Amino acid sequence: MNRHGERDRTLALAGIFQAANLVTKLARNGQCDQRAATASADSLFEFDPVSVEAVYGGLPGLELGLRTLYAQLVQPAQRELEVARYVIALVQHADKLLSDSSRFEALGRDLEVLQQKSADYDLGEFSRSAQLGRLYQQYVSPVPPQIMVRGEPLYLQNPQLTGQIRSLLLAGIRAGVLWRQCGGKRWHLLTRRRRIAGIASAMLDSIT
Description:
- There is one protein chain.
- By secondary structure, the protein is an all-alpha fold.
- The chain has a single domain (6-207), classed as YcfC-like (Orthogonal Bundle).
- The chain has eleven helices and no strands.
- The protein has helices spanning 6-29, 34-42, 52-55, 63-74, 81-98, 101-121, 125-139, 153-156, 159-181, 188-191, 193-207.
- Helix 1 (6-29) crosses helix 4 (63-74) and helix 6 (101-121) runs antiparallel to helix 7 (125-139).
- The longest helix has 24 residues, at 6-29.
């Protein structure tokens, strides 16, 4: 992935918005788009992808993220403040992870170990989410400011859901790292809103 343009940055940005959307839905409703959730979680195990698109198994794996990104940028009636709050927090933690090479590399090694374990023992979705959640607690939770997830106590006290929420937050941070690696800047969201929304719209049209 040596050459990055606005399409790559938009895809990575959609990865962040997808994770934020999924976390919001799980915390509020106890359920979310499972195809998107699987694509986001799987992205954590793409260590040497040939493209940004390949990180998510192709464009369909980012459809929810592209729709969320488009709505947040140009459809005021559909904007969700909670999604925006998570996006900001995920980018912030991505920056912190990138600036701490030892923590970044240790997390990468542990993800590789988990990938191998998943292959050897055919871990189920619940078990994999739980282990990704533990990696989140180990590598992200101790770093301030903590990402405060808001939602229904019934869901936030469910171990299966909290494991999935943490795994998706980790996936969102991974997308934030990818966005930065593609040259993403926070001011792009202010000065290039229409351009980014146009790219997202074109990619959504190509999916459907």
